[in-house]
Amino acid sequence: MLAIVTLAVVGCKKKEEAPKVGAPQGGMQMPAGAAPGGDPHAGLKPMEIPAGVGHKGKVVSTMDAAGYTYVEVEEKGQKVWVAVMQTKVKVGEIVEFPDAPPMVNFQSKSLKRTFDKIIFAPGLRISK
Q: Residue 104 belongs to what H/E stretch?
């Protein structure tokens, strides 16, 4: 009898839909049904970035780690680091990416280094 009452109570409770979790700059969202505690980037792809969205510069260096591509871009004589979901990009290419507030003193555990300033962008556009 106790088991039947327990099942009835549990079965009658309203189930709430879990909210979708967005990335810091919008643009990328966790897929519905993604497991909490799992890889938050599973199934995500870089956004397509339209021309003229913000920054534009030449790739000085690039490296991949933990599903991200870290790109050092020289723009108007200044260098800036940008992190995006893993993307194929080569030194010497001209890239564009949207403006976003930089993270200061960001520590990358996978690269074992600290970036003074780095912008996390939803994607890069490679200019042709």
A: strand 103-108
Amino acid identity at 56: K
SS (H, E, C) 38-98: CCCCCCCCCCCCCCCCEEEEEEEEEEEECCEEEEEEEECCEEEEEEEECCCCCCCCEEEEE
Nearest to 97 by CA among 76, 127, 117: 127
Q: In terms of Cα–Cα distance, which of 17, 61, 51 is closest to 126?
A: 51
Sign of the CA dihedral with 92 first, then 118, 67, and 112 last: positive
Q: What is the pLDDT of residues 22-34, one digit of tens each?
A: 334 434 433 344 3
* Amino acid at site 92: G
pTM: 0.64
Which residue do the tokens 């792809």 mark?
45
Structure tokens at 10: 């549990």
Strands 68-75 and 54-65: antiparallel
